[in-house]
Every structure is written in C-alpha cells, then in structure tokens.
C-alpha cells in the first residue's frame, strides 16, 4: 500500500513548502511556535504523544464496537464515511504527497519517536506512507468518532468526551510535528463531507426502497 500511495521525497518536500506558504498567506502558520512554546515542556509533550499514539486506532476500535452493538444505524453511517474518506484520502496522498513537519526542513522535532519507538513499531515506516500529511485522517476520523458519540450517547459526560476527542487530536498532531494546521482543517472538512454524503445517500436509498403509496 505504501508504494501505491507514497510520492517522491522531493515532491513531498516541495508540496510541504507550498502548504507552509499557503498557511503563512492565511496567517495560520504557527506550528513551530506551538511546538516550541508547549511541546518543549516534557510533561506536556508526553501527554500529547500519548494522545497521538492511543487516541486514534484504539479509540476508533472501541467506538466502532460500541456503535455496532448499541447503535447500528450510526455505526453504518460512521463506518461508510470512514471508508469513503479513506479512499479519497488515498487518492490525495498519491497525487499530492506532502512531507509532515517532522520530515520537512522546518527544524521541528518528531516528539513521538524521540520519547518512544512504540508507535513506529505499531505502524512501521516501511508499511506506512510517511508523506501523507494532507489531509489528516487522524483528526478527521477522530472527528467522525466524536460526532457519532455525541449523537449516540445519552450521558452528558460521554458527549463532552466526544467533543474533546478531535480537539485533543488536532493539538496532538500539531504539537508532535506530524501535521500542519491546514491538514487538520482538510481532514475535518473531508470526513464531514463524507458523513453528510453518506447520510444523504442512505436517506435517498431508503426513499427508493419504500413501497409506493406509503
């Protein structure tokens, strides 16, 4: 899969420079300042490293199992939105490779690898696309889980957790130098577009299957 979606290093670096220039034009380029200001603190860095490592796939797995057992309709919509956004993301990764801040010449530190190699062992670089910064599916898929939790949960504290998840992941991907701010925005926009597209398609299909005259 890596060889199908990973572009050349030179193209990824060049595109990373374009992303940085785009952020600067919009006044959004704060990644270096954020990492230097907050992630330079060992305790803060550790917290966001753990959010990045354990706040993605484990959270997705637990959420999907819960939804599948308790809220089937929301599970199906969430699953299908993940599949659709993942497919679109792979096309973007293949056609527009972007080096993340940790691999771009920006002077930022890969805090996850510096503190622990656990995450790189769980997802070995040889099997993952290292130049898939845009869009951030870490943020996008955590946002999908958060939306599903807010809709499905009954307890207020669980709903609040659903709201906090994508916010925490957005901070984590930036502080750890794994994504740019615009990556997070793109990931959120993509997955929400897919969420609403799946909802529209499901409703349309239900209307077509509904017996005439009902």
Automatic annotation (TrEMBL):
It is a multi-pass membrane protein. It holds the Pfam family PAP2_3. It is found in: Membrane. One of its GO terms (cellular component) is membrane. The chain crosses the membrane at residues 50-68, 80-99, 131-153, 160-178, 184-202. Residues 18-195 form the Inositolphosphotransferase Aur1/Ipt1 domain. InterPro entries: Aur1/Ipt1 (IPR026841), IPC_Synthase-Related (IPR052185). Keywords: Membrane, Transmembrane, Transmembrane helix. This is Inositolphosphotransferase Aur1/Ipt1 domain-containing protein. It comes from Phytohabitans flavus. The lineage of its organism: Bacteria, Bacillati, Actinomycetota, Actinomycetes, Micromonosporales.
